[in-house]
Amino acid sequence: MAAFAVMQSPVSAPSVAGASCSLRGSAPVTPEVGSNSSVSSTVGVAAFSAAAAASVLRADRKRRSARTQTVLVKSRGGDAVETVAPTTTEINYYKLDEIDAPKIVESMKSALKAMKGKILASGSAQDKLSAALCDEEVMSALVSISRLPVFSNEFGIAFKDDLDLLHALKQIKYFWNLPQSQISILMSQLAKQLEGP
């Protein structure tokens, strides 16, 4: 309560003369010991803040220690007390597919072949790209890539021999959010990696 009372005391502003003297290079004016100045109230507020922070830390430590459970195990040899940390539950929201590198490469190759036929057709560039992206094999390949854990260690190990292909596949996973021009660039990079220049 005393710390609260210190906070309630009026805070006096520093005098203009003291501030101007310190700017001119003179020695600063020091407050008298025992006077009720802004320094003493600042110290009181700092002490109150430190006490509040310490109590928050103690509460956090208590909460952390409460997470472990003590279990009494009874057996023929006697009773034993074990400390058990709670287990965590992994929730698999996305139900990602399994990584099968040859299958991934084959689906992308078939998608590129299907796109090649659509791109070589006559018409505007936007119509060609639209037709290519609406092809069943292309859609299937893009969706199957989007369902893979491309940032997992297993995926990295599966494509460790061709890092450019790995880079392109990681980007294609998010084709839903990419502009059409970026998808076109990524598909051309895939074609270079899978079929050569």
Quick take:
This protein is mainly alpha-helical and 197 residues long. The protein is built from nine helices and two strands; from the N terminus they run H-H-H-E-E-H-H-H-H-H-H.
Which tags fit this structure?
two-stranded antiparallel ribbon; 7% strand; 197 residues
* pLDDT < 50 runs, ≥5 residues: 15-22
How far apart lie the N and C ends?
Answer: 79 Å
- Biggest sheet, spatial arrangement of strands: 1-2
SS summary, helix count: 9
Mean pLDDT: 75
Order of helices and strands: HHHEEHHHHHH
- Sheet/helix structural class: mainly alpha
Taken as a percent bin, the fraction of beta residues is: 5-15%
What proportion of the residues is helical, as a percent range?
A: 55-70%
Counted beta strands: 2
Task: Write structural notes for this entry.
The chain is mainly alpha-helical and 197 residues long. 59% of the residues lie in helices and 7% in strands. The chain contains nine helices and two strands. The chain has helices spanning 2-8, 16-24, 38-66, 101-119, 125-133, 136-146, 153-158, 163-172, 180-195; strands at residues 69-75, 78-84. Strands 1-2 form a two-stranded antiparallel ribbon. Helix 1 crosses helix 3 (38-66), helix 4 runs antiparallel to helix 5 (125-133) and helix 4 packs antiparallel against helix 6 (136-146). The radius of gyration is 34 Å and the shape is elongated. It starts with a helix and ends with a helix. Mean pLDDT is 75; it is low at 15-22.
